[in-house]
Structure of 2-hydroxyacid dehydrogenase HI_1556:
Amino acid sequence: MIYFTFDPRPDLKNDLLSSIREEKFEFTRQVDVELLKQAEILVTYGEDLTVEHLPFMNDLKWIFVASAGIEKMPLKELKEKGIAVSNVRGIHKTPMAESVLAHILTAYRSLKTIYKEEEQKNWNKKVPSKELFGSTAIILGPGAIGGEIGRLLQAFHVKTIGCNRSGKKADFMDDMISFDGLLNALPEADIVISVLPSTEETKNLITAEHFKAMKNDAMFMNFGRGSLVATDVLIEALENGEVGSIVCDVFEEEPLPAHSALWNFEQMTVSPHVSSHSSRYLERSFDIFKRNMKIYKNGDLANLENLVNLEAGY
Amino acid sequence: MIYFTFDPRPDLKNDLLSSIREEKFEFTRQVDVELLKQAEILVTYGEDLTVEHLPFMNDLKWIFVASAGIEKMPLKELKEKGIAVSNVRGIHKTPMAESVLAHILTAYRSLKTIYKEEEQKNWNKKVPSKELFGSTAIILGPGAIGGEIGRLLQAFHVKTIGCNRSGKKADFMDDMISFDGLLNALPEADIVISVLPSTEETKNLITAEHFKAMKNDAMFMNFGRGSLVATDVLIEALENGEVGSIVCDVFEEEPLPAHSALWNFEQMTVSPHVSSHSSRYLERSFDIFKRNMKIYKNGDLANLENLVNLEAGY
């Protein structure tokens, strides 16, 4: 039985049921342990499974996570039980890269200021206008999403420097550095973008020292996970003018509390964790699911797309 | 003598003087007829020359216009006098294409709404998020600027349809249509962008009929010249919901008067004719001027870059 812990839009649900006729489906809006006991395949957004559910996973072989965030899942325990976990990480690349480019271009072309002047019916031509052309960007996490950001930045003639643990080559990156090399490379960057997942290694990877190393007019963007950098570090960098602007789509605490000082800075943009949103999201997710159902039915669990490394946590 | 009717930034001026040592230069902030009489080459932004200046152009051979807008110049009279006019039209392509992409992505990723919510310290995830990927754009005026817009849109997997007088093939356009075919093609477009210059043919090219033919959620952008479409036509389209949003960088009357109804629409963005602005503008202009000085000195006036067709007006 294929058990969904959410209830998809009727048109998408009907499409699923008619394309996978041979299987029994169940859909509920919360985890139902009685159904979980009978499930062979579980489809979830990844935020509703805890260690308490493990004893009920009797027949479970595969968890399909219809999102990229798996940090709330009991990964080690799932590994012990021999359950395969795959997600849809590639799916976010288009909306996320479009969001990142939107924020970068907005900053370079001063749209936020233009909108404010517009509110006041002010025709003010004295807004700064920079060109993205010829600038340099460091992309922390040059995987599927980071690579798509790199591809688009290159189309704008931006030099892309990928930054990952090993410094190993990645697509659409003109240069590569390792996490250890980041501090040295920062003075060169006009834009620093993170799309890193939350792991032990990426937690607090960005510190006050990194902001001090950045150009004073650099743009820092966190579109991965809030654990990358402490809120206080962001506030200090803004207060000290160590960075030109910051755009975050993710925060240590979400929703960002109304009393947070981050809301108050002119140079700060708070995006409410929406950069991966897309009106076409679930449609694409289910395309991946259907494709992988065939792989699963062939018994090729090891060949599922976007299989999660349950030890590394990504 | 090379006569500038504006006074450039000292660093750029010094660079000019030291790279063209053999010529005499004059710089004033307004047209001085005594200097004009002696000038062989005139460098202007194109907005300060009138028919009254013609009798003083005794020695003038070449006018270098450090902008793209030449519609205020007495072109026919200059032709009669045998004076060559060239401009820097290619120079605008980078900042303008970046501006156009900024506005498109902002709309697709709802940044204007996100900024408004941010002002209120609202963490509101319920903002619409569309993907640019897979959409269709019509580009009116697929020349240097339109082509650069097309190139970038194609990087975002947007289908580009160029629209010019003849329907003749243009770079970075998946399809081509002529002005006559526009009305038929509009129902297909998610985005309609004009970067057309102001000529007899482009004046009021866009009418109420065109807006009625557009998708109700289409985005219309005028980044060429305000004469393309009457202000009343824009207001009517917004009032009737015939278009999803409008972004204009140019208007029939500039500055857009504070009493204009265009300021009042939520779906309207007023950009104060800044899309071509760039902190690197004059630097690039002077690079073109220096390059063309060599062509001029060789007596090759017919081979100057961006030579203006004084009859056609572009």
